[in-house]
Amino acid sequence: MLTFVFVCLSISVTGLYASFTVSVSNPLITVKENEGVDLKCSYTADFGATPRVEWKFKDLKGYQFFIYFDSMLTAEYEGRITVYNGGLRFDKVTQADTGDYDCEVSGNGGYDEKTIKLTVLVPPSKPVSRIPSSVTTGSNVLLTCFDNVGSPPPTYKWYKDNTPLPDDPSKFPTFKNLTYKMNVFNGNLEFPSVSKLDIGSYFCEAGNGEGVTQRGDAVRMDVLDVDSSQVPAVRGTLSTETQNVLSKITMNHMLEKMYGVFTLQEVKLKLEIQKLELEITKLKLELQKRGHEV
User: Fold this and answer.
1) pLDDT per residue of the chain (294 residues) written in tens, 0 to 9
2) What is the model's pTM?
3) CA distance 32 to 152
């Protein structure tokens, strides 16, 4: 009876002081694309001789997948990964492998887990930029630059006439009269109220420390004043409704120069102006006819 009690106490004390611990050799790993890498996970002997080891992966979008479960690699990772002593070995990584890897170990009544953050390094590609060829004085103008390949995500730099623009123009005497706002993380270059000082050729660069910094195409941006002379001189003799149509046509002409595209509404306005031109032609013929009669 005393022996039985002693054994129970012994087991209880052992469980009380057991150290169920999982550890990783490096919680932050970076590796170049197409290279191999080891994710090492170890655990204490308290889990027993044959603990349950599982690996899970969470990508940058937050989706989670099993890599190693029930002592087997999942179908997606067969042929790409080798399991050894609880660790994982990638033969060749891709950008899609960037994310968090959880090593979970359980057994003998204990459980612990550790996470390894893997970043696959990929140089940026040529960024896609949007730069209008002409804008109107005083308008809010946004230039954009974006690369969806680089890992980690690149930072961006803007140039005007081959001169790099500082992040904050107010801190530099040469640029203090410029009022743009630059976001180096999302690639936006915003002009809250564009002026003649902003006329020039613009391009952006994307870089993340991997490979060569990539440059986008350069586009010249002109800043135009609103030219009221574009409205026909006969404006005062036309009805209010007709004048409104002409105003819309003038604005759409400016949009056409800025973006080179037509919306359905613009097409309808072009038909309206054709009708107005016909009306004006008839009016001129009528005036000529009356002149001959006089």
Assistant:
1) 434 333 333 333 344 456 899 999 899 999 999 999 999 999 999 999 889 999 999 999 999 999 999 999 999 999 999 998 889 999 999 999 999 999 999 999 999 999 999 999 999 999 999 999 999 999 999 999 999 999 999 999 999 999 999 999 989 998 988 999 999 999 999 999 999 999 999 999 999 999 999 999 999 999 999 765 544 443 444 445 545 544 554 555 444 444 444 445 665 667 777 777 777 877 777 776 666 565
2) 0.62
3) 11
Distance CA(183)–CA(55), nearest Å, equals: 38
Q: Which residues contact 64 (CB under 8 A, 6 or more apart)?
A: 56, 57, 58
Query: Residue 169: which residues within 8 A CB-CB, separation 6 or more?
Result: 175, 176, 178, 179, 180
